[in-house]
Amino acid sequence: MGTLIGALILAVVALAVIALVLWPLVTREPGDPPPDPVADARRAIDEDLQRSLAAVREIEMDHRAGNLSDDDFAALDRAERARAVELMRRVDELDGR
Fold first, then answer.
1. DSSP string, 14-54
2. Which of 33, 53, 57, 67 makes an SS bond possible with 62, Cβ 3.0 to 4.6 Å?
């Protein structure tokens, strides 16, 4: 009996995984353009860049509010700005510049 329940649970989980994987293929309309991996990568990088720029602003606000020492501010600001520059470079690469 325990083996039967285990097999049933395994079958339900397997069907759920298959449904999740196939769902985008099934719901796509025939006239929809195929997925564009470059556009998806660009969108992901843009989202990361926006988060990085927001982090730079927050680091600056924390420093102005006195929540960060000058040394901590300098280290955090330098690291986050370097991350933002790297993301901008990746956007430029995708744009073919």
1. HHHHHHHHHHHHHH--TTSPPP-HHHHHHHHHHHHHHHHHH
2. 67
The tokens describing 16, both together, are 């759920």
Give the whole-angstrom CA distance, residue 92 versus residue 42: 10
| C-alpha dist (Å) from residue 65 to 30, 44, 52, 57, 68 | 55, 31, 20, 12, 8
Q: What's the pTM? A: 0.62
User: pLDDT digits over 42-62, tens only?
Assistant: 899 999 999 999 999 999 999
What distance in Å separates the CA atoms of residue 85 and residue 93, rounded to the nearest whole number?
12
- Residue pair 51/86 in contact (Cβ under 8 Å)? The answer is no
Tokens 């353009």 found at: 33
